[in-house]
Amino acid sequence: MPRPKRERTQILLRLDPRIADALRAWADDEMRSTNAQIELVLRDALRRTGRLPASRSDDQDET
């Protein structure tokens, strides 16, 4: 059964080329898109700092 589509917000992000390269390599290592890797890292940082409560639906997107 397909998951319902979630609304997404587009954000223009300018990165230092070294950071972009490192993110791309990390994403490749974990078989994710660069976008999915950035979202995973941001979600983790937001949760660790108490700015985003844990949610089961978000956890499913991390695979």
Assembly type of the chains comes to single chain
Distance between the termini: 17 Å
Number of helices: 3
What is the H-and-E element order?
Answer: HHH
Shape designation: globular
Derived structural class:
mainly alpha
| Mean pLDDT across residues | 89
For the biggest sheet, the summary is: none
Which regions are unreliable across 5 or more consecutive residues at pLDDT < 50? Answer: none
Number of strands: 0
- How large a portion of the residues is in β-strands, by DSSP E? under 5%
Task: Give the % helix.
Answer: 40-55%
Radius of gyration: 13 Å
Summarize the structure in words.
- This is Arc family DNA-binding protein.
- InterPro entries: Arc_rbn_hlx_hlx, Ribbon_hlx_hlx.
- One of its GO terms (biological process) is regulation of DNA-templated transcription.
- This protein is an all-alpha fold and 63 residues long.
- It has a domain of 35 residues.
- The chain is built from three helices and no strands.
- α1 crosses α2.
- The longest helix has 15 residues.
- The model has no long low-confidence stretch (mean pLDDT 89).
